[in-house]
Amino acid sequence: MQAFQYQDRELFVEDVPLAQIADTFGTPCYVYAESALTQAYSAYSNAFAGIDHLVCYALKANSNLAVIRHFASLGSGFDTVSIGEIRRVLAAGGEAGKIVFSGVGKSADEMRQALEIGIHCFNVESVNELERLNRVAGEAGKRAPISLRVNPNVDARTHPYISTGLKNNKFGIAYEQALDTYRRAAALPNLNVIGIDCHIGSQLTDATPLIDALDRLLVLVDQLGEAGIRLKHVDIGGGLGIRYDHETPPDVAAYAAAIKQRLAGRGLSLLLEPGRSLVGNAGVLLTRIEYLKQGDGKHFAIVDAAMNDLMRPSYYQAYHQIRPVTRRDDAVATYDVVGPVCESSDFLGKDRELAVQEGDLLAVMSAGAYGATMSSNYNTRPRGAELLVSGDSVRLVRARETFEQLIANEIGLLDGND
Ligand SMILES: Cc1ncc(COP(=O)(O)O)c(C=O)c1O
Ligand SMILES: N[C@@H](CCCC[NH3+])C(=O)O
Fold it and tell me: pLDDT tens, 210-243?
């Protein structure tokens, strides 16, 4: 079932008209469909059934506690990139033993806390990080479970800002240095070498580079085995794309089949770190048109959401479909849909054919991933509310920020600290 669809002229989320949500909770707001979260997760768990695997949802895509809790209830693990994200997982009821901790810049304090919490694995990205983790673990009287994030030097063929697996990217350990680095890791007393991982980029619309990357990791796994270093798992990261416009993203089942074939008989368990493909099409950004404006040769629909709410269009020139919440028969015109922020790059969509009037609601589609999590308070704009819909029930899962919250860390300091 499609989670967002028209019934007559009204766009619904599951069984609820989006217009009703806007009236009750105001705009802008993010609206998530629980059925779409479940469906996306099930696509992975069904496709990988039969092999030892753990889906570690990358919560940088959407870290709302209710979303995390839902995935935890489905059995998910979590890929995290800060102690803050780890604490979110715990706050939402996720299991510490199913958390992997990625990222190039883990601080000693983050390591200490993650060791105390007892996460499943540190995905280590450099030799210096390895040595720091060994020291911190020794001081804490622990042994840190580690995987090395290897940079397989594979071109993910995606937007350069979200490509991470080429040798000129900051991520991971260079492929040629991986064997040596594993030998060093195995010799450090406070580390327990359990895995290998990679993540080559995001919004991949062809799975071939992901499979190529896995093949390259498996060559290393074999070489490590010959050197007496036996790994328990391979973690192939995230990256599967979604349909924003006319893309045909890789089918999870076909992707799984290719992976299963390569892992057969190896005795390795599999970790995956999907983010976007679990949440992207489960959310929309709901916004209301404040003004229609006729420029010199341009029509603008000025809405109450902006680049601070959804930065993907201005940051990556990313395309999101924009749909009217109530369809009209009025004449269609071509609009740039823009926000109130004081930047020319503040747009949500360009040259969109819409039949709209002032006061109408628009739904910016496919906004469940890297929407709310990348939002900011630029122009002192409070972040909007977030709602989670299941059938005909609507739950407020993040309240709209208030002005008082925005200035809270400044107000007491206004007259200086002396
Ligand atoms: C280490 C790591 N794992 C997983 C992901 C999730 O990627 P995606 O949302 O493309 O599935 C990311 C983000 O790109 C990442 O950096
Ligand atoms: N933020 C990016 C994805 C980056 C993933 C993080 N490694 C996006 O919106 O597409």
Answer: 999 999 999 999 999 999 999 999 999 999 999 9
Q: What is the pLDDT of residues 376-397, one digit of tens each?
A: 999 999 999 999 999 999 999 9
Among all ligands shown, which has an atom nearest to the Cα of 159? 2
Task: Show Cβ contacts of residue 67 under 8 Å, excluding neighbours closer than 6 positions.
Answer: 32, 37, 59, 279, 388, 397
370 CA from centroid of ligand 2 (Å): 6
Q: CA angle, corner 397, sides to 392 and 402, nearest 5?
A: 130
- pLDDT tens string 31-81: 999 999 999 999 999 999 999 999 999 999 999 999 999 999 999 999 999
Pocket test for ligand 2, best of 197, 243, 316, 348 (most atoms within 8 A of CB): 316
Does the domain made of 4-32+280-410 have the CATH classification 2.40.37.10? Answer: yes
d(CA 270, CA 248): 25
Q: Give this complex's ipTM.
A: 0.98
State in words which class domain 34-277 has: alpha beta
User: What residues does CATH 2.40.37.10 cover in the chain?
Assistant: 4-32+280-410
Q: Please report the beta strands in 252-384, taking only residues with DSSP state E, as ranges in sequence order.
A: 269-272, 283-294, 299-303, 322-324, 333-338, 347-354, 361-364
Q: Where are the beta strands (DSSP E) in 366-405?
A: 385-390, 393-398
Ranges of CATH 3.20.20.10 domains, the chain:
34-277
Pocket test for ligand 1, best of 166, 252, 273, 374 (most atoms within 8 A of CB): 273
